Model the fold of this input.
Amino acid sequence: MNPTEKEISREPVENTIVAIIQTRCPKCREENMFVHQALNIKGFLKMHRSCPACGQDLHPEPGFYFGAMYFSYGLNVALMVTFGIAFEILFHPSSFALTLVSVFIPPLLLAPWNFRISRAIMIYVLGGIKYRGNKSKA
Ligand SMILES: [Zn+2]
Done:
């Protein structure tokens, strides 16, 4: 692992939405759930078995993250609708085929983030793990 990846997270993130987007551990919100950054093509899928900071198990049961595909689907539909409408309004394309192409490009480019954020949503919503609060503030 390169040292800049390790330096990314330390202070816990209080806001749940920000913590999910940054794929922080749901218990301590200090460490990233994933080993590498999203732009690491070979390793963006690799998750920690347990949180390096607090030891929270990030794989509650076998196949736990299969359900994340439903969140992924929802995120992709939201992206496609948003970009499709924006493309229509901003560029008034001459053919519907252009709109269709514009609708499929953002989800393809954002696939690594979609994958990771979907898994984070899954463990935050259905993992049954409560945020322990900021220990350094108390
Ligand atoms: Zn943790």
Q: What stands out?
A: The first helix runs from residue 3 to 7.
